[in-house]
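Each field is set out underneath.
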Amino acid sequence: MAGTGAFSASGRFSPVRAAAGAAARAELAPAAITRVGAVLGVLAALWFSSGDLRGAVAGSVLLGAVLFCGEVRDALAGPSPDAFTEWLDVVLGRLREYAVYAGLAVGGVLAGVEDAWAWAAGALIAGALRDTAIASGAPGAAAPRQPAPRGRDWSSAVLGGLDPERPPGDPGLTRELLGDPVPERDRPPRRRSGSYALTARPGPLSGLRAAACFPEPVRFLVIAVTAVFADARVTFIALITGCAIAATAALVDPRPGEGRR
């Protein structure tokens, strides 16, 4: 699964490194870890469907295991995973989250929550709107390419236009194309968020910006807390509220955040 941005500990958290090393020695591909996470997500949904406290606690623990698998998968895949691995991660990630919503709705019905399925549908719709709003703010998503200006700056505009994330006249890109690569320490760090390659924005507000995107770790945390201490209706209301805040933030500030998909 995709990197968690400000929440990621891939390659730095010792259990993640140990698990990634064990998976590499076992010759497990990142796609295999993604499938393991999907299975754990379905198991979490089954526990949530019981509608009792024991099922909520077990489902919450399994959601934590899903996130751990994501960190291991990111550590195995490295900064440049192949297209199939990314596609599989997105598809299975959506399916397992929808399965969790269905399990919560079934558990809500068994616990006597009214209109549990309607609340679940509202959470799905809010999630889709959140994804659309964030995708519309991705680099190069809607901005048309400007024609190169005439004059002596035409070469800088052409060189800068090769990468929509680098401004015209970027000296680092120019040095790379001329055979003088930019030192690794001078390159801006990048993090992945879902299918978007994002430039990291270090600073005290980076964590808040990432949380405002309501990424998967935050959604799973909301599910775990509300499922244990409240009921399915509160869980879905919290998910709808978080997705609405993320969509609003993406529309007000179109810069992509650093959260997970």
Remarks:
- The chain has a mean pLDDT of 76.
- The longest strand covers residues 190-193.
- The CA atoms of residues 10 and 127 lie 25 Å apart.
